Sequence to fold (127 residues):
Amino acid sequence: MLRTVEVLKYEAGEKPGYVKVCGIKSREQIAREVTQSLQEDEAWKERLGGLDYLSGSHHLDREGSLPTSYWGVVVFPVVGGSEGHYIHAGILDREFKYHEIMLGKTFNGMEEAEHMAHGIREILSGD
Fold:
């Protein structure tokens, strides 16, 4: 079973047993934790070898920080402009603007990209 990765950071709340949002993790940290979650599962670990990359850093044109309030996680595969298939993972803010968190690429076809997108979505949304 894949381990869930929280996008937000939490700290203890004012009441015992409660927490409050204190920020959002960096793209790099989220990508690293997603990759670790995939590597902890033997079936997914093997699939990771089929990716050209899975990154939250140098493959993204990053503008500004990620919003701490968002509607949900979005993960989807697309056909590359010239080669391969890409896996995009991000969040939709309260105005439904998409913010990229991480990007992956595979040369193993759309079915593999769809499978990876499903796993990443499961990790980031917890279901």
Summary: Residues 8-125 form one domain. The CA atoms of residues 64 and 99 lie 10 Å apart.
